[in-house]
Amino acid sequence: MKKSNWVTMLFALTLAVSLVGCAKGESKSAEGEAADGEQKPVEISIGTMTYGESPSSDLDSITQLNEELNVKLDIDFYPINSYKEKVNALLASKSLPDVILIEDIQDPAFSTATEQGAFWDLTPYIKDYPNLAAYPENAYENTKFLGKTFGIPRVRPLDGHESLMIRQDWLDQVGLKAPATMDELYQVLEAFTKNDPDQNGKNDTYGMAQASVSGYLMSMFGAGTTWKEQADGTLLPYWMTDEAKTALEFWSKAYADGLITPDLPVMKSSQVKEMIIQGKAGVAIANVNEAFMFGQELKKIHPEAELKAFEIPAAPDCKKYHEQAYGSYGVFLVNKLTVDEAKLKKILEVYNATADEEGYNLITYGLKDVDYTVSEDGSIVQTDEGKKKAYGTATTAQWISGYFNKYQRAEAPDMPAEVKEYNYKLIDAITNSSVVNPAAGLPVTEAWMERGGDWQKKFVDMYTNVLIGKSSLADWDAFIAGLQADANFQQHLKDTADSYQSK
């Protein structure tokens, strides 16, 4: 979920032109009076993603916020599976909103546009908004560009986004325990595929459901979180490490043995969820709280089912590796060419108001005692009305930056206290083995700006083809050797190392 989705350089120029095109004569001020002398509500357009159905902008929670802050929010929610395409369409049609969610501030298209002045530098403003200023330092450090803060981080906890979600009832059925090593993980995947764990007499289950290739598949073997520091202090992309090749050997064998869903190359994250809740797969990499959330839906079809989250098994070196998150997932950029300073401050006021627990709950869950209630242990319990309106972390919460909660990925509405306690302990354990990205927050190199999209595509293609057996490990070695002989790529590594040493 946190890996960069690099947009090709083709859109860099398009973005800058799009912004200029839509900006002419359209800069909207926060000032303005109605006929009766009262200040007019400030109209703010926002574009973001949703993991579920698209909520309405007419929800009571939005109405309340509009009235309290004298704004008029117009929020467009776009499905996660087509979000990248939608953002590209917004660029092409010259219709970027005032605020847009971007998954990676340093992707080539938006970094180029930022350099050209397309978005507001928020560095001098954040300190004036206490809830935003209270975010963890690394949430800002890891999302800086050219040493400045251009986006409001969509703040997230550091850990809990990477766990192994497993059908506990299937483990019991095949007589195995949760895997503690990679060898044991292979045994679990094999048993879930070949030993009829659902006892329906059919060969219709897979050990694991996986959406495309993922850095997690390599980092859990010790390859590093995006980058890995070498003994000499230099940095190496995780996929160029020896551990990455070891991971490829493991996963390509698992795929060849039929232990992973065969349509992995094109599978979407939403389809992984479907495979789990339909009882077609028994393992997936997921947020800690998704074991409970998916499990609730799974039980509607298979009442006896039990999903549980576990730590990632130990790598061959007997150590566990979890990727530590950046402290954010994406940033909200403010369009400088359609927003003046007065309106910028109003936008920051909106995001500050929704960056504490009260504001977060209002937007995420709706009106208290109408759309949700709070149980004795402090858990949020959604009412039928709240569910009907599509409130939730996967939907309405996606347009705000949120508030920092270490255990956010341990919690979910209607979660029993014992499950929450288990999840808290699990996240504490994961924290002990979480690995930071040493290159987080470093500037993008010129070489990557020019050729990164091509390198990334070649890497993903080779990674995918080796995993599914279309290419061999010898082909992988040749690919890595080619990069080692590529002067431009070596310059990229050198510039990254230099930035790291001076960090």
TrEMBL record:
Transmembrane segments: none annotated. Residues 1-23 form the signal peptide. It comes from the Bacteria. The keyword Lipoprotein applies. Keywords: Cell membrane, Lipoprotein, Membrane, Palmitate, Signal. InterPro entries: Bact_solute-bd_prot1 (IPR050490), SBP (IPR006059). PANTHER family: ARABINOSE-BINDING PROTEIN-RELATED (PTHR43649), POLYGALACTURONAN_RHAMNOGALACTURONAN-BINDING PROTEIN YTCQ (PTHR43649:SF33). This is ABC transporter substrate-binding protein. It comes from Paenibacillus glucanolyticus.
